[in-house]
Specification:
alpha+beta, 11 helices
Length: 482
């Protein structure tokens, strides 16, 4: 709801050419002074806002759909997951591909500096640990659907800094929750790190995935018990987590070596009180060329309303010109000669609101709040993928790779031509080879709380400065020793 003067100020910013506006505002002020209208009752005069019509489409999220898989360092599998699994909110990856993407300009090396990384997608936010050195590439990453940006996902290297562990937080109902993605190699370095490191966090909803531990606790085909399993259970218990069992019991890892049996080594641990315990699923037919099948789980959260589209008027467009002209034309017909009492004033305000509302509705267009790229995936990709899933032959897998490569090349060749020819400036393509910008703030804490908004960041800076200033004053006040 906008007050009357809020409507005036908002409209005057949009309608710089609307000179009669100041006349109306002056008359209102004079009328208030003459009638001695007290400011507090005046502020209570409200008009029905047209702002709510900007948000026209929304999505209600009641649970997080999570998919996880060890992709065996295969970028094509990640491409396929991100292009064909948009129904999921979070995709957790173990053993991602991590290699040189391209050369970027360097002041040290004339041939350019290697840019290391993995698959990036405009529709997904990538969370990966920053490399301290080239051999320290992360073995766990996460993709968050861009539609869930409002949940404020953060990667917490400040709490757990290990290449095989990613701890991601998000906010729901003003509570911070955590999701932990783990890859445990043959030496179980990630589990040893968690065992030896004191991590004091609450509200861990999920801990997963490839633990590389065979044990009869979760694999009935395996007759033995491993001591490493005890450490895993103790670690899970420290986070108030317990093992979840599959709805469709079957192996999660499929051996491609003769004589080696399939096994269950991809696990999910959920909170003790979780209603999703023993409700996760495995998709053995969808593991593609990886030896690990993907798993999925839905985790309930408090209902979140996420707006997905809005009405807007593009700046400096024909619609904006028409919007302004219509308001000017209709505003001139308003009778503002007599504002003698509150009822007449409110009537004029509502008429003015109706003028703006009508012009807005007529000239706006619908736009997505979160940008989604045009997908390069085509029906030919889907067809070749289905052929491979049906036969699981090496020949069809090679054909699938060839189709994807051809389709992507064709798609991006067109995009390059569009960018280069739009303003006849091929240098605009330089934006494609710049180093990706890191977030200015990953996770700053003050007094044990995350500073996620400018106000909290300013309070932290202000308090820290005052503390330092007080310490400096105390030092100055101390008598110097003779």
């Amino acid at each position: 709801m906008f007050s009357f003067f809020q409507v005036l100020k908002l409209s005057r910013r949009l309608l710089s050419r609307l000179q009669p506006m100041s006349v109306l505002e002056t008359q209102v002020q004079q009328s208030m002074a003459t009638k001695r209208i007290h400011w507090d009752p005046w502020k209570q005069i409200q008009v029905n806002s047209f702002w709510h019509k900007w948000q026209t489409s929304r999505m209600i999220v009641k649970n997080l759909k999570i998919l996880l898989q060890n992709v065996r360092k295969n970028s094509l599998i990640i491409n396929t997951l991100l292009e064909t699994h948009n129904q999921f909110n979070i995709i957790l990856i173990q053993e991602p591909p991590w290699s040189e993407i391209r050369k970027i300009p360097s002041s040290i090396d004339c041939e350019g500096e290697p840019l290391m990384g993995t698959n990036h997608y405009p529709n997904w936010i990538l969370f990966a640990r920053f490399l301290s050195e080239r051999s320290d590439s992360p073995r766990v990453i996460a993709y968050i659907n861009i539609r869930l940006s409002s949940l404020q996902f953060l990667l917490h290297n400040d709490i757990i800094n290990h290449r095989d562990i990613s701890l991601i937080s998000f906010f729901n109902n003003n509570i911070c929750y955590y999701i932990m993605n783990i890859y445990s190699d043959s030496s179980h370095s990630a589990l040893k790190y968690l065992k030896d490191t004191e991590v004091n966090i609450d509200n861990v909803l999920l801990m997963t995935d490839d633990f590389n531990i065979r044990d009869n606790l979760w694999d009935l085909s395996f007759p033995f018990h491993s001591s490493i399993s005890d450490d895993l259970i103790i670690i899970a218990d420290s986070f108030n987590l317990t093992l979840s069992t599959l709805t469709n019991p079957c192996p999660t890892r499929y051996s491609d070596m003769a004589g080696e049996s399939n096994s269950v080594i991809d696990l999910i641990f959920l909170h003790y009180e979780s209603s999703e315990l023993d409700c996760h699923s495995i998709y053995p037919e969808n593991h593609l060329s990886s030896d690990h099948a993907p798993l999925s789980i839905d985790i309930s959260i408090h209902k979140e309303v996420i707006h997905t589209s809005k009405f807007l008027i593009p700046p400096k467009s024909d619609q904006e010109t028409s919007f302004i002209e219509e308001i000017i034309l209709n505003f001139k017909n308003l009778d503002i000669s007599d504002i003698g009492n509150m009822e007449k004033l409110e009537c004029i305000v509502n008429q003015f609101r109706a003028i703006i509302d009508q012009a807005w509705t007529k000239n706006t267009k619908k736009s997505r709040i979160y940008k989604h790229s045009k997908q390069w995936w085509t029906d030919a990709c889907s067809c070749s993928l289905n052929n491979y899933r049906t036969t699981r032959s090496l020949k069809n897998w090679q054909n699938f790779k060839k189709v994807v490569k051809t389709v992507k090349k064709s798609f991006f060749d067109v995009k390059i031509q569009e960018v280069a020819n739009k303003s006849h400036g091929p240098w605009e393509l330089m934006n494609w080879i710049k180093r990706c910008k890191l977030l200015a703030i990953k996770a700053i804490k003050y007094d044990g709380h995350l500073c996620l908004f400018p106000e909290s960041l300013w309070d932290a800076l202000h308090s820290t400065f005052n503390t330092a200033l007080n310490i400096f004053n105390e030092i100055e006040c101390k008598p110097s020793s003779q």
